[in-house]
Predict the 3D structure of the following.
Amino acid sequence: MDIAPFLPGFIAAYAILLVGASSPGPSVAMLIGVATGEGRAPALIATAGIALGSATINILTMLGVGLLLSHAAWAMTGLRIIGAAYLLYLAWGAFKKMRNPPDLEPLNVKRRNAWRHFMVGYLLQVTNPKAIAFWLAIASIGATAGGGIGIILLFIAGACTISFVCHGAWAMAMSARPIRTAYAHARRWIEGALGAFFVFAAYKLATTKV
């Protein structure tokens, strides 16, 4: 299996996923609630659920995009424009948070067993409209276009790992109050950097031929 021709697409898709999965949102708030209320182990179990949910969306969006393109190759252009527009929307949200950073408070989470924590993470991810739109933006890059099942499985495995590592880092770090405090002080700069990255990613997605 020769992965070299697919590396540019992998890198572009993974870079967007890395930044997106690292951005605070509903999943992060849920993980903070679990970590502070029940400890890091349950939070990491919920993280595994989020990662599997992310992989599920990844597979479904790839299948849907592949089916669409098999009937209309021109749809890739439209999909890339939609993806770029969504990335610009994320950039606008990041810049808005940079001006007025909202408090990142942990969600109140009931005590559950390991399986329930896993399912909460999974269901939260697969039912999140923003996560679905985000994966459509990534799918529009066409990172696995022309690749066989091995390339597709490799991409999915890498994406699932990135999701777990990024969300797991939140679960590990934000359970400590000093780190949450330090993050709050630096959040304007972090959100500004995220916004700039999403603008750059939108430009590359809209102008680079796949």
About this structure: Residues 12-207 form one domain.
